[in-house]
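Amino acid chain
________________
===
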Amino acid sequence: MAAGTLYFMSPAPVIIAIDGRSGAGKTTLAIELAARLREHHKVSLFHLEDIYPGWNGLAAGIERYASTVLAPLHRGEPAEWVSWDWNAHYDGDTRTTRPAEIVLVEGVGAAAAAARPYLSAVIWADSPEQDRRSRALARDGDSYAPYWDEWAAQEEEWLAVDDVPAQADVRVLNLADGAAPAEVLQALQYLPALSTVMLPELAARRGLELRAERITAAPDPARLFESLYGRSANAVWLDSSLPPDEGAAAERSRFSILADDGGPFGQSVRHTAGSTQVTVGNAAVRTEEPFFRWLDGVWGGRAVRGPEGYPCEFTLGWLGYLGYELKRETGGSDVTAESPDACLLFAGRAVVLDHVERTVWLLALDTPDAGDWLGAARTAVTGAGVEPSGTDTGTGAGAAPDFTARDSEGAYKAKINEAQYQIAEGNTYEVCLTTALTAELPASALDPRQAYLALRRRNPAPFASYLRFGDLTVASTSPERFLRIAADGRMRAEPIKGTRHRDADPARDAQLRQELESSPKDRAENIMIVDLLRNDLSHFAVPGTVSVSRLCAIESYATVHQMVSTIDARLRPGMPRAEAVAACFPAGSMTGAPKVSTMAILDRLEGAPRGFTPARSAIFRSTAPPTWPLRSGPWCSGSGPAAAPD
């Protein structure tokens, strides 16, 4: 430090490294990202190309950068460093980089092992090799061309011993189309280490307005979904396929929701065994934290209000499923499933079908492209024809697959006997045992969409769904509502426990319904689950608001009679909704009672993970050979997909 110079230490800045091979667009990304961050923060920017000591100086440059730039900045002190004069091929002048609230450092090696102890977050930018070379040479002209191979060899040597991409918090495929800065900025908001500093960006998102249109129409939902989202890698159709004028479930059969993760705010999420990956366009961020903690961080209050006259509570937000193995976070053991523990997408625009009013609502966050999307959706609604009477949509899935049971009849009965023994010993009161049926099909015969259309035709239900998340497709038809949490805090669970098949003979069908209604065994099972859910809801409910408004009622569906109860409560003000979901998860009707000890018994008896297991569902994977597992069981009812207003 020069004599007479006095520096004041600043608070330690948030330091974000943007790394990647030469030509990946790091400099442009850093400059654009800095411009966006400067709307709310003081930002300092450092380029590693100013410090490399020559064309063969990658390793030496990383060492200089870590010791003379990062170390003092991390302490909140100005960094004095010696630049490199690329024309003179020698050390240049001494420069100073001052700390700021956020410091962006970019260049090859910005997130090297020596640098990572000082960094708050690491971004790895990549792009196709042919694009990288052309970009780098276009930027630096002929001066770089003779050294491209030498520099590339240094990069390969460095990355062979320091796998920075694997250590990155955010990875982005930078296609130089201008989208990367906004995508990376959204991805950074999911990093716990940046949660405090990114609060202004999060607040700006919650200030968005909603654009909406109402169309008087009753389009064929299958055609509409295919028209709008047939090519989307991630898309959701929450399908109330039961006609809303049929039976006691009419209230739950009014709305269907169709959406994908397109648009400026579209995102998708996969959570597997403690790791959550959020994808925003071509950027992906990974965090290692429990899922319900992550969900609590993104599931805030209602971000936007519905338009006047809009009858549905869903006003855009997270859609998808929560898998059974998330029980590791709610008292169950840690079991790894083949399918992700949760898959969600954030719908920044969606189509809501009102089957009662026979109208369509188009919802979109007010972004620059919202008008174009609304126009395209309007055209799709007009071209989707008329919703057919009943649910007879599509041609079906062809010949029935040849299923193989995971358990033989004898083995499954032995498990039932063991469950009964555990009940007699007092270790549990009720065990919801399941098994799996699997069919292997040639890839040419695997058509998840047609299979789902056949499923909804055969077994219409208020909570049917067709979920596509990349190589994973879920087709489900469930009559059961696991849990509803309204924007005003009203909570409702409607567990199903007790089933009889339907019969073509009306007299026999009525007899079966009466048999279920008067069955002491089924009533006892249902009441035990009601009691379990009353306890689950009470943990976060306003005292005195937990009530049972319907006990052991019978609802009739296309293929079964079901015994259904309704438990209501009100969420305590300020209580996190994600924790209320966790307190009730998994649904008691999927486990039995008491929940924790029974889940342990189920793990031992079933001997395999359940994964995503709503009743009457199929999970398709585009693998070779593809499989079609269908989970079912005489003591099992499913919870269905999740829909959460943001």
Observations:
- The radius of gyration is 28 Å.
- The domain at 14-205 is CATH 3.40.50.300 (Rossmann fold).
- The chain has two domains: 14-205, 210-300+312-390+401-645.
